[in-house]
Amino acid sequence: MKPFHYLFLFILMCGTITTTYAQESTEIIFHKSHEPKKQGAPYSDAVQAGNMFFLAGQLGMDQTTRTLVEGGIQAETEQAIKNIQDVLKQHGLTLDNVVKCTVILSDINDFAAFNEIYTQYFTKKPARTTFAAKGIAANGNIEIDVIAVK
Q1: Cα Rg for the chain, rounded, in angstroms?
Q2: Which tens digit of pLDDT belongs to each residue from 17-31?
Q3: Which residues are paired to 147 by β-bridges?
Q4: How far is the C-alpha of 36 from the C-alpha of 100, rounded, in Å?
Q5: Do residues 115 and 122 lie in contact, with contact meaning Cβ atoms separated by under 8 Å?
Q6: Is 2 domain-assigned?
Q7: Which CATH number goes with the domain that contains 82?
Q8: Res. 33 pLDDT band, cuts 50 70 90
Q9: Residue 4 belongs to a domain
């Protein structure tokens, strides 16, 4: 092989070793909920891997009463987003740190009404997946989970 090929191979190997080490050394932190009533939940509100935060799905639920807000899809969407903001705030983050959203609607026909509220809050336009599914927890109309980067 020519000297250039050896140099290229050496650089490629160094990059692979560095990438592998970075993946092996990432600390994972399972954060407890900031909500006292959710301390015993079988999941974490946020899991941190390096500078990435993976948030549990949020419903349109008033966290003080643990009941869904009244007013249908738009009211539940707004409350779900406020709940996301509360979790992000606990980690020094805002909606501007969100890079990915997954949205589950109980009825895909609510897409336009949901989107009216969503676009008011997620102005940076993170990547998004939206679909409909039956049986959202607490008989909710929407659940949203996000991934954020610090």
Answers
A1: 20
A2: 555 555 578 999 999
A3: 54, 100
A4: 27
A5: no
A6: no
A7: 3.30.1330.40
A8: confident
A9: no
